[in-house]
Amino acid sequence: MKVIRQTVKFDKKLLDKNAVKVIDTIHKAGFEVYLVGGCVRDLLLGLRPKDFDVATNAKPEQVHKLFKRSRLIGRRFRLVHVMFSARNFIEVATFRSGKVQTAKSGVIVRDNCYGNIEDDVIRRDFNINALYYDIKKHQVIDYVGGLIDISNKEIHMIGEPTLRFEQDPVRMIRAVRFQSKLSAKLSPEIHASILNQAHLLSHVSPARLYEECIKLFHNEYAFEVFESLEKYGLLQCLFKQTHKNSFIKKALLNTSARIKQNKPVTPAFLFAVFLWQAQNERFIVIKKKQKSFYLAMAKASEEVIIAQIQQVSLPKWLTARIKDIWMMQSKLEKMHPKKVQELLDNPRFRMAYDFLLLRSKSINPELLETAKFWTKVQN
Known about the structure:
The protein is α+β, with helices and mostly antiparallel strands. Helix 7 (170-181) packs parallel to helix 9 (206-217), helix 13 (267-287) crosses helix 15 (316-334) and helix 17 (349-360) packs antiparallel against helix 18. The longest helix has 21 residues, at 267-287. It has helices spanning 17-28, 38-44, 60-66, 117-123, 146-152, 161-167, 170-181, 188-197, 206-217, 222-231, 235-238, 246-260, 267-287, 293-309, 316-334, 340-344, 349-360, 368-378, and strands spanning 4-7, 33-36, 53-56, 70-73, 79-83, 89-94, 101-102, 108-110, 131-134, 139-142, 154-155, 185-186.
Protein backbone atom coordinates (compact mmCIF):
# COMPACT_ATOMS: atom_id res chain seq x y z
CA MET A 1 0.00 0.00 0.00
CA LYS A 2 1.68 3.22 -1.21
CA VAL A 3 1.44 6.07 1.29
CA ILE A 4 1.56 9.78 0.48
CA ARG A 5 2.48 12.26 3.22
CA GLN A 6 1.61 15.80 2.24
CA THR A 7 2.71 18.67 4.47
CA VAL A 8 -0.22 21.02 5.10
CA LYS A 9 -0.49 23.68 7.81
CA PHE A 10 -4.15 24.31 8.50
CA ASP A 11 -5.35 27.60 9.92
CA LYS A 12 -5.47 27.12 13.70
CA LYS A 13 -8.80 28.98 13.78
CA LEU A 14 -10.35 26.13 11.75
CA LEU A 15 -9.11 23.45 14.17
CA ASP A 16 -11.33 22.51 17.09
CA LYS A 17 -9.51 23.35 20.35
CA ASN A 18 -11.06 20.40 22.17
CA ALA A 19 -9.96 17.97 19.44
CA VAL A 20 -6.41 19.33 19.74
CA LYS A 21 -6.54 18.83 23.55
CA VAL A 22 -7.71 15.23 23.12
CA ILE A 23 -4.95 14.50 20.60
CA ASP A 24 -2.30 16.08 22.86
CA THR A 25 -3.39 13.95 25.84
CA ILE A 26 -3.40 10.68 23.84
CA HIS A 27 -0.07 11.57 22.19
CA LYS A 28 1.59 12.34 25.57
CA ALA A 29 0.42 8.93 26.82
CA GLY A 30 2.59 7.38 24.07
CA PHE A 31 -0.06 6.43 21.53
CA GLU A 32 -0.35 7.06 17.79
CA VAL A 33 -3.21 9.52 17.17
CA TYR A 34 -4.67 11.50 14.23
CA LEU A 35 -7.57 13.62 13.09
CA VAL A 36 -9.46 11.49 10.59
CA GLY A 37 -12.21 11.44 7.98
CA GLY A 38 -14.58 14.23 7.04
CA CYS A 39 -12.86 16.92 9.10
CA VAL A 40 -9.57 16.40 7.18
CA ARG A 41 -11.46 16.44 3.86
CA ASP A 42 -13.27 19.67 4.77
CA LEU A 43 -10.10 21.38 6.03
CA LEU A 44 -8.39 20.60 2.71
CA LEU A 45 -11.35 22.20 0.92
CA GLY A 46 -11.16 25.31 3.11
CA LEU A 47 -14.49 24.46 4.80
CA ARG A 48 -15.12 24.69 8.55
CA PRO A 49 -15.77 21.09 9.74
CA LYS A 50 -18.81 20.45 11.92
CA ASP A 51 -17.29 17.41 13.62
CA PHE A 52 -13.73 16.46 14.48
CA ASP A 53 -13.11 12.72 14.80
CA VAL A 54 -9.97 11.21 16.25
CA ALA A 55 -8.40 7.81 15.46
CA THR A 56 -5.73 6.11 17.58
CA ASN A 57 -4.02 2.78 18.24
CA ALA A 58 -5.06 3.07 21.93
CA LYS A 59 -7.86 0.68 22.90
CA PRO A 60 -11.21 2.25 23.93
CA GLU A 61 -10.61 1.31 27.59
CA GLN A 62 -7.14 2.95 27.49
CA VAL A 63 -8.60 6.15 26.03
CA HIS A 64 -11.40 6.10 28.61
CA LYS A 65 -8.82 6.02 31.45
CA LEU A 66 -7.04 9.10 30.08
CA PHE A 67 -10.10 11.34 30.38
CA LYS A 68 -12.15 11.80 33.55
CA ARG A 69 -15.10 13.14 31.56
CA SER A 70 -15.46 10.38 28.98
CA ARG A 71 -17.79 7.49 28.28
CA LEU A 72 -17.58 4.22 26.36
CA ILE A 73 -20.41 3.83 23.86
CA GLY A 74 -21.61 1.38 21.19
CA ARG A 75 -21.68 -2.37 20.78
CA ARG A 76 -21.39 -2.62 17.01
CA PHE A 77 -18.55 -0.08 17.03
CA ARG A 78 -16.88 0.51 20.43
CA LEU A 79 -16.06 4.21 20.73
CA VAL A 80 -15.13 6.78 23.37
CA HIS A 81 -16.85 10.15 23.69
CA VAL A 82 -14.65 12.68 25.49
CA MET A 83 -17.16 15.13 26.99
CA PHE A 84 -16.65 18.90 27.17
CA SER A 85 -20.31 19.74 27.78
CA ALA A 86 -23.67 17.96 27.44
CA ARG A 87 -23.69 18.39 23.64
CA ASN A 88 -20.02 19.01 22.92
CA PHE A 89 -17.84 15.93 22.71
CA ILE A 90 -14.97 14.53 20.64
CA GLU A 91 -15.40 11.00 19.29
CA VAL A 92 -12.32 8.78 19.55
CA ALA A 93 -12.15 5.49 17.61
CA THR A 94 -9.52 2.77 17.81
CA PHE A 95 -7.94 1.58 14.54
CA ARG A 96 -9.90 -1.44 13.33
CA SER A 97 -8.65 -4.46 11.40
CA GLY A 98 -11.60 -4.75 9.03
CA LYS A 99 -12.44 -8.24 10.34
CA VAL A 100 -16.16 -7.90 10.87
CA GLN A 101 -19.07 -10.03 12.09
CA THR A 102 -22.02 -9.89 9.71
CA ALA A 103 -25.66 -11.00 9.80
CA LYS A 104 -27.12 -13.30 7.12
CA SER A 105 -28.12 -10.21 5.11
CA GLY A 106 -24.45 -9.16 4.99
CA VAL A 107 -24.96 -6.18 7.36
CA ILE A 108 -22.11 -5.62 9.83
CA VAL A 109 -23.23 -6.37 13.41
CA ARG A 110 -19.81 -6.24 15.15
CA ASP A 111 -16.62 -4.40 14.22
CA ASN A 112 -14.39 -4.48 17.28
CA CYS A 113 -11.29 -6.28 15.99
CA TYR A 114 -8.48 -3.78 16.36
CA GLY A 115 -5.55 -3.25 14.00
CA ASN A 116 -3.11 -0.60 12.77
CA ILE A 117 -3.58 2.49 10.60
CA GLU A 118 -3.13 0.50 7.36
CA ASP A 119 -5.93 -1.86 8.42
CA ASP A 120 -8.12 1.05 9.50
CA VAL A 121 -7.90 2.78 6.10
CA ILE A 122 -9.33 -0.23 4.26
CA ARG A 123 -12.48 -0.44 6.42
CA ARG A 124 -13.46 3.22 5.75
CA ASP A 125 -16.06 3.99 3.09
CA PHE A 126 -14.79 6.47 0.47
CA ASN A 127 -11.28 7.59 -0.53
CA ILE A 128 -12.12 11.20 0.37
CA ASN A 129 -12.99 10.12 3.94
CA ALA A 130 -9.89 7.98 4.51
CA LEU A 131 -7.38 10.78 5.14
CA TYR A 132 -5.49 11.14 8.42
CA TYR A 133 -3.89 14.32 9.75
CA ASP A 134 -0.87 14.28 12.04
CA ILE A 135 -1.15 17.54 14.01
CA LYS A 136 2.41 17.29 15.35
CA LYS A 137 4.06 16.85 11.92
CA HIS A 138 1.46 18.91 9.98
CA GLN A 139 1.04 16.02 7.54
CA VAL A 140 -1.98 14.63 5.68
CA ILE A 141 -1.52 10.86 5.32
CA ASP A 142 -3.18 9.25 2.28
CA TYR A 143 -3.13 5.52 1.52
CA VAL A 144 -5.92 5.31 -1.08
CA GLY A 145 -5.78 8.33 -3.40
CA GLY A 146 -8.13 10.53 -1.40
CA LEU A 147 -6.08 13.65 -2.17
CA ILE A 148 -6.42 13.02 -5.92
CA ASP A 149 -10.18 12.43 -5.58
CA ILE A 150 -10.63 15.68 -3.66
CA SER A 151 -8.67 17.52 -6.34
CA ASN A 152 -10.70 15.89 -9.14
CA LYS A 153 -14.04 16.18 -7.27
CA GLU A 154 -14.69 12.46 -7.59
CA ILE A 155 -16.04 9.93 -5.12
CA HIS A 156 -14.65 6.39 -5.22
CA MET A 157 -15.40 3.52 -2.85
CA ILE A 158 -12.69 1.76 -0.89
CA GLY A 159 -13.32 -1.83 -1.95
CA GLU A 160 -16.16 -3.17 -4.07
CA PRO A 161 -19.30 -0.96 -3.81
CA THR A 162 -21.81 -3.85 -4.00
CA LEU A 163 -20.24 -5.56 -0.98
CA ARG A 164 -19.64 -2.33 0.97
CA PHE A 165 -23.27 -1.20 0.53
CA GLU A 166 -24.45 -4.67 1.54
CA GLN A 167 -22.39 -4.41 4.75
CA ASP A 168 -23.81 -0.97 5.55
CA PRO A 169 -26.60 0.40 3.29
CA VAL A 170 -26.35 3.84 4.97
CA ARG A 171 -23.23 4.35 2.86
CA MET A 172 -25.55 4.89 -0.13
CA ILE A 173 -27.18 7.98 1.35
CA ARG A 174 -23.77 9.22 2.54
CA ALA A 175 -22.53 8.95 -1.06
CA VAL A 176 -25.48 11.03 -2.28
CA ARG A 177 -24.92 13.64 0.46
CA PHE A 178 -21.20 13.99 -0.32
CA GLN A 179 -21.96 14.22 -4.04
CA SER A 180 -24.14 17.30 -3.39
CA LYS A 181 -21.98 18.81 -0.65
CA LEU A 182 -18.76 18.66 -2.68
CA SER A 183 -20.31 19.11 -6.15
CA ALA A 184 -18.53 15.85 -6.92
CA LYS A 185 -19.16 12.99 -9.31
CA LEU A 186 -19.91 9.45 -8.09
CA SER A 187 -17.81 6.74 -9.72
CA PRO A 188 -19.70 4.62 -12.31
CA GLU A 189 -19.43 1.62 -9.95
CA ILE A 190 -21.06 3.51 -7.05
CA HIS A 191 -23.73 4.93 -9.36
CA ALA A 192 -24.69 1.45 -10.67
CA SER A 193 -24.57 -0.19 -7.24
CA ILE A 194 -26.92 2.36 -5.64
CA LEU A 195 -29.46 1.93 -8.44
CA ASN A 196 -29.35 -1.85 -7.91
CA GLN A 197 -29.23 -1.88 -4.10
CA ALA A 198 -31.39 1.06 -2.97
CA HIS A 199 -33.89 -1.41 -1.45
CA LEU A 200 -31.27 -2.49 1.13
CA LEU A 201 -31.80 0.81 2.93
CA SER A 202 -35.11 -0.55 4.26
CA HIS A 203 -33.07 -3.09 6.30
CA VAL A 204 -31.50 -0.31 8.39
CA SER A 205 -33.02 0.40 11.80
CA PRO A 206 -35.43 3.39 11.78
CA ALA A 207 -33.63 4.86 14.83
CA ARG A 208 -30.31 5.08 12.98
CA LEU A 209 -31.94 6.65 9.91
CA TYR A 210 -33.35 9.57 11.94
CA GLU A 211 -29.89 11.07 12.55
CA GLU A 212 -28.87 10.39 8.95
CA CYS A 213 -31.97 12.22 7.64
CA ILE A 214 -31.10 15.32 9.64
CA LYS A 215 -27.63 15.29 8.05
CA LEU A 216 -29.24 14.85 4.61
CA PHE A 217 -31.50 17.90 4.81
CA HIS A 218 -30.08 20.35 7.36
CA ASN A 219 -27.47 21.86 5.08
CA GLU A 220 -26.95 24.33 2.23
CA TYR A 221 -27.73 21.82 -0.55
CA ALA A 222 -30.89 20.13 0.80
CA PHE A 223 -32.98 20.21 -2.39
CA GLU A 224 -30.16 18.75 -4.51
CA VAL A 225 -29.91 15.88 -2.00
CA PHE A 226 -33.69 15.33 -2.17
CA GLU A 227 -33.60 15.12 -5.99
CA SER A 228 -30.66 12.69 -5.92
CA LEU A 229 -32.39 10.46 -3.36
CA GLU A 230 -35.45 10.42 -5.63
CA LYS A 231 -33.36 9.67 -8.72
CA TYR A 232 -31.63 6.69 -7.09
CA GLY A 233 -34.83 5.23 -5.58
CA LEU A 234 -33.59 5.91 -2.03
CA LEU A 235 -36.29 8.43 -1.10
CA GLN A 236 -39.05 5.79 -0.98
CA CYS A 237 -36.96 3.81 1.51
CA LEU A 238 -36.93 6.85 3.82
CA PHE A 239 -40.23 8.61 3.04
CA LYS A 240 -42.54 6.34 1.05
CA GLN A 241 -45.46 8.77 1.60
CA THR A 242 -43.52 11.74 0.17
CA HIS A 243 -43.54 12.90 -3.45
CA LYS A 244 -41.81 15.97 -4.82
CA ASN A 245 -43.90 19.12 -5.21
CA SER A 246 -43.35 22.88 -5.19
CA PHE A 247 -44.02 23.07 -1.42
CA ILE A 248 -41.21 20.62 -0.62
CA LYS A 249 -38.83 22.43 -2.98
CA LYS A 250 -39.68 25.79 -1.40
CA ALA A 251 -39.21 24.42 2.13
CA LEU A 252 -35.84 22.79 1.36
CA LEU A 253 -34.52 25.93 -0.35
CA ASN A 254 -35.79 27.97 2.61
CA THR A 255 -34.03 25.64 5.09
CA SER A 256 -30.75 25.97 3.17
CA ALA A 257 -31.10 29.77 3.08
CA ARG A 258 -31.68 29.87 6.86
CA ILE A 259 -28.58 27.74 7.47
CA LYS A 260 -26.47 30.07 5.28
CA GLN A 261 -27.73 32.98 7.43
CA ASN A 262 -26.98 31.07 10.68
CA LYS A 263 -30.70 31.04 11.55
CA PRO A 264 -32.15 28.13 13.57
CA VAL A 265 -33.85 25.19 11.84
CA THR A 266 -35.80 22.26 13.26
CA PRO A 267 -36.38 18.79 11.78
CA ALA A 268 -40.04 19.03 12.89
CA PHE A 269 -40.68 21.67 10.22
CA LEU A 270 -39.22 19.69 7.32
CA PHE A 271 -40.86 16.42 8.35
CA ALA A 272 -44.17 18.27 8.62
CA VAL A 273 -43.67 19.51 5.05
CA PHE A 274 -42.67 16.06 3.73
CA LEU A 275 -45.76 14.40 5.20
CA TRP A 276 -48.32 17.20 4.64
CA GLN A 277 -49.65 15.81 1.34
CA ALA A 278 -50.09 12.33 2.82
CA GLN A 279 -51.84 13.84 5.86
CA ASN A 280 -54.24 15.75 3.58
CA GLU A 281 -55.06 12.67 1.52
CA ARG A 282 -55.67 10.57 4.64
CA PHE A 283 -57.83 13.34 6.17
CA ILE A 284 -60.11 13.43 3.07
CA VAL A 285 -60.75 9.67 3.38
CA ILE A 286 -61.40 9.78 7.15
CA LYS A 287 -63.58 12.91 6.97
CA LYS A 288 -66.15 11.00 4.89
CA LYS A 289 -66.85 8.80 7.94
CA GLN A 290 -65.88 11.12 10.77
CA LYS A 291 -67.95 14.31 11.00
CA SER A 292 -65.70 16.05 13.56
CA PHE A 293 -63.01 18.05 11.74
CA TYR A 294 -60.70 17.91 14.78
CA LEU A 295 -61.00 14.13 15.27
CA ALA A 296 -60.51 13.47 11.54
CA MET A 297 -57.36 15.66 11.53
CA ALA A 298 -56.03 13.94 14.66
CA LYS A 299 -56.66 10.44 13.26
CA ALA A 300 -55.11 11.28 9.87
CA SER A 301 -52.05 12.81 11.57
CA GLU A 302 -51.57 9.77 13.79
CA GLU A 303 -51.87 7.26 10.93
CA VAL A 304 -49.42 9.12 8.68
CA ILE A 305 -46.86 9.45 11.50
CA ILE A 306 -47.18 5.77 12.47
CA ALA A 307 -46.50 4.81 8.83
CA GLN A 308 -43.48 7.13 8.78
CA ILE A 309 -41.81 5.89 11.97
CA GLN A 310 -41.73 2.37 10.52
CA GLN A 311 -39.14 3.78 8.10
CA VAL A 312 -37.47 6.61 10.01
CA SER A 313 -37.94 6.79 13.76
CA LEU A 314 -39.13 10.22 14.98
CA PRO A 315 -38.87 11.19 18.68
CA LYS A 316 -42.16 11.93 20.49
CA TRP A 317 -41.30 15.60 21.02
CA LEU A 318 -40.86 15.94 17.26
CA THR A 319 -44.09 14.19 16.26
CA ALA A 320 -45.96 16.39 18.77
CA ARG A 321 -44.59 19.49 17.03
CA ILE A 322 -45.47 18.14 13.59
CA LYS A 323 -49.07 17.61 14.73
CA ASP A 324 -49.18 21.15 16.23
CA ILE A 325 -48.05 22.68 12.92
CA TRP A 326 -50.72 20.73 11.02
CA MET A 327 -53.55 21.39 13.50
CA MET A 328 -52.83 25.14 13.52
CA GLN A 329 -53.19 25.48 9.75
CA SER A 330 -57.00 25.51 9.78
CA LYS A 331 -57.00 27.96 12.70
CA LEU A 332 -54.70 30.34 10.81
CA GLU A 333 -56.79 29.96 7.64
CA LYS A 334 -59.98 31.01 9.49
CA MET A 335 -58.42 34.30 10.76
CA HIS A 336 -61.01 34.46 13.57
CA PRO A 337 -60.63 37.95 15.18
CA LYS A 338 -61.16 36.63 18.73
CA LYS A 339 -58.50 33.95 18.26
CA VAL A 340 -55.72 36.16 16.80
CA GLN A 341 -53.93 36.98 20.08
CA GLU A 342 -54.30 33.43 21.38
CA LEU A 343 -52.65 32.09 18.23
CA LEU A 344 -49.88 34.72 18.31
CA ASP A 345 -49.09 33.65 21.90
CA ASN A 346 -48.91 29.96 20.96
CA PRO A 347 -45.26 28.73 21.20
CA ARG A 348 -45.75 26.91 17.86
CA PHE A 349 -47.14 29.98 16.08
CA ARG A 350 -43.91 30.90 14.28
CA MET A 351 -43.45 27.42 12.77
CA ALA A 352 -47.12 27.20 11.79
CA TYR A 353 -46.99 30.69 10.24
CA ASP A 354 -43.82 29.86 8.25
CA PHE A 355 -45.54 26.67 7.10
CA LEU A 356 -48.61 28.63 5.94
CA LEU A 357 -46.40 31.23 4.23
CA LEU A 358 -44.57 28.56 2.20
CA ARG A 359 -47.87 26.89 1.29
CA SER A 360 -49.18 30.24 0.00
CA LYS A 361 -46.07 30.66 -2.16
CA SER A 362 -46.29 27.15 -3.64
CA ILE A 363 -49.21 24.70 -3.56
CA ASN A 364 -51.87 27.04 -2.07
CA PRO A 365 -51.68 30.46 -3.81
CA GLU A 366 -55.27 31.09 -2.64
CA LEU A 367 -53.79 31.58 0.85
CA LEU A 368 -51.63 34.60 -0.14
CA GLU A 369 -54.05 37.10 1.46
CA THR A 370 -54.28 34.96 4.59
CA ALA A 371 -50.48 34.87 4.85
CA LYS A 372 -50.36 38.67 4.38
CA PHE A 373 -52.89 39.04 7.24
CA TRP A 374 -50.71 37.05 9.66
CA THR A 375 -47.58 38.91 8.52
CA LYS A 376 -49.36 42.21 9.19
CA VAL A 377 -50.75 41.33 12.65
CA GLN A 378 -47.27 40.31 13.84
CA ASN A 379 -45.98 43.74 12.92
